[in-house]
Amino acid sequence: MTNEKQNVDKQYVASVAKAVQILSCFRPATPLLGNQDIATRCGMPKSTVARFLYTLSKLDCLEYDNRHDKYRLGSRIATLGHSRSAGDDIAEQLQPAMRRLALEHDCLVTLGAYEDASIVCLAGARGPSTQAPSVEPGMHVSVFSTAMGRAYLASCGRLERQRILDQAVRRKPTEAEALGKMVHSAVAEYSRRGVCTTIEGWRRGHNGIAVPLFLKQHGRRLTLGCGAPSRELTPERVFTELSQALLATANEIEVAFERRARMARTRQPPPRRL
């Protein structure tokens, strides 16, 4: 819509248009953007962009990535539609690596993403004889008691992690201390090992381990986890065999996606201004 039409159209809400313009800057080739990046693309003052980034982050439309000091599209945008197509696409691309991991270590391998205060399972792969419970795409699991959830929390920025914890405490105020300890434990373990684990934490008699996936081309932080009954996946296997295998697989995936992101940047046209 032209500026002339905007001036005469009383139904047109300029602030909504600016928010859409900002969200439109996030493309497959540029999933991570900072304040200055967006201000340059949209032709807006940095102070204006900062207010929009704050509001969009509060609404889960954007997510702050403290690792890169930039923003990416958040879970609310994913829920509105991008999650399904992107989730299916990413799951398909990761299936070979997931199947190999499941086959070599005879466990359940699950790909997850943070959504609606939980971890939503995007895809799974099973080992040939594991008795791990079935996980269907779209299934939601706890962000606090599962290895995938803890891996997501541990890899969050401090503010995002605190926001998730505050939301959980408001729903379950009597569990505030226990939830806080879970988060602290997850952060400490991730800092020490690079993975997060649950030993009979999510479900009695089952163990799990997970790592975050930082896929720039995807523009959304995911988690990759392995789990199985404790008689199959002992704590010793979790902390040695599976830890090494999962970290190696995650690194392999991230390197491959970084290569794709570099290739995509050379072909991506600039965003069209409103």
Question: Can you put this structure into words, describing what you see?
Answer:
- The chain is an alpha+beta fold.
- The chain is 51% helix and 17% strand.
- It contains nine helices and eight strands.
- Strand 1 and strand 2 (70-73) form a beta hairpin.
- The longest helix is centred in the first third of the chain and has 31 residues, at 75-105.
SSE blueprint and pairings:
Elements: H1 3-8, H2 14-24, H3 35-42, H4 46-58, E1 62-65, E2 70-73, H5 75-105, E3 108-115, E4 118-126, E5 140-141, H6 147-155, H7 158-171, H8 176-193, E6 196-199, E7 206-213, E8 222-229, H9 235-265
Helix pairs in contact: 3-4, 5-9, 6-8, 7-8
Keywords:
274 residues; alpha+beta; 51% helix; disordered N terminus; two-stranded antiparallel sheet; 6-stranded antiparallel β-sheet
